[in-house]
Amino acid sequence: MGNNNNISRFDWNLAFILFLFFCVSCTAIYSAQHLGQYDENFVVKQIVWYIVGAAIAGGVMLLDSDQLQKLSWYMYGLGLLILTFLIVAPDSIAHEVNGAKSWFQLPGIGSLQPSEFMKVFLIIALSNVIVKHNEKYRIRSFREDILLLFKLGLTLLVPWLLVMQQPDLGTGLVMIAIFTGMVFVSGISWKIIVPIFSSIAALGVGILSLVVYFPSFVKNVLGLKTYQLGRIYSWVDPYNYSGSDGYHLIKSLNAIGSGMVNGRGFTKGMVYLPEGHTDFIFAVIGEEFGFIGGSVVISLFFVLVYYLIKLGLETRNEFNSYLCTGVIALVSFHVFQNIGMTIQVLPITGIPLPFVSYGGSSLMGNMFAMGLIFGVSFHYKRYMFGSE
């Protein structure tokens, strides 16, 4: 009886959505391998990572909200410890790749990016902060809201600084997106949220304007790296930087454009795409399966996010609702940034397409996040109009 009950409590709908992503991922990576730049079989490796990710999700699913809350600061502390060690680790186990020291090189396993797990630890820690604060201050005033915002900001700041030390701008932006999404649902008054985030947005636009029109000031005063500035310039005018920073974007635009409505066909891609199996996997999909194929993939992400929103509203556990919010912010920003950078809507950053791009760390981190969602379904799912 117990086993049957566990089977019925398992979220088969979410499992099916992830299975569809698995099929999309393997198909797209297999296509990318036919571009002639690879001598490895990344599809087999991706299948292995999916199996490992499923095991991680299964283990996390067994933890209920009380256990996660008790473990939240241990997980958060572990993440900070690993990120700190990454900075001081010798080159033999953590050497720079493309100017960033973001990966451990582990024998027999390959590269492992700890910041992918830190993003999920951050979601759990922020959820715990909000719940504890709301339990303590049932009647809220301006002071209590500012105090909560300060707590959340401090929780974000420490791992964010460690990630930016690598430097890894993409992951830093994801962390900010998670923080922003969770602040919006934390109960903090909009009279506080709107002025603060409007000011931050205005500051961002101002810095972007400085990068475009006063690059020397930005490099000398703000300390941005030359390669980071190059990404901005190549985003605004990629054809002027076709031999350097704009190369990837031009290739991506050519690939997606050549796919038109129906695509060239499976494994019939002709545009050489560096990193086609990782960051630019959507360009491969766009070329070979066209507008229709790209729309199907985007629709699948819409289904996933809709399902997460629905689950977050249905659960009657406050902590789990915040977990769902954090995962929604994580997935949504990844999708928006990754697809946006392939079609010149956003600058290029090293952010993969969740569940589709090849990469063990990314996939394990995302499956870790899905483990939290499976746990919500397994332990606490309730229907708004259902009986107790």
UniProtKB/TrEMBL annotation:
Gene Ontology CC terms, in alphabetical order: cell division site; plasma membrane
Protein's UniProt keywords contain Transmembrane helix: yes
Entries under InterPro entries matching the protein: FtsW/RodA
GO MF assignments: lipid-linked peptidoglycan transporter activity
Location relative to the cell: Membrane
One BP term from GO: regulation of cell shape
Membrane topology type: Multi-pass membrane protein
Keyword line: Cell shape, Membrane, Transmembrane, Transmembrane helix
Protein name as catalogued: Cell cycle protein
Taxonomy of the source species: Bacteria, Bacillati, Bacillota, Bacilli, Bacillales
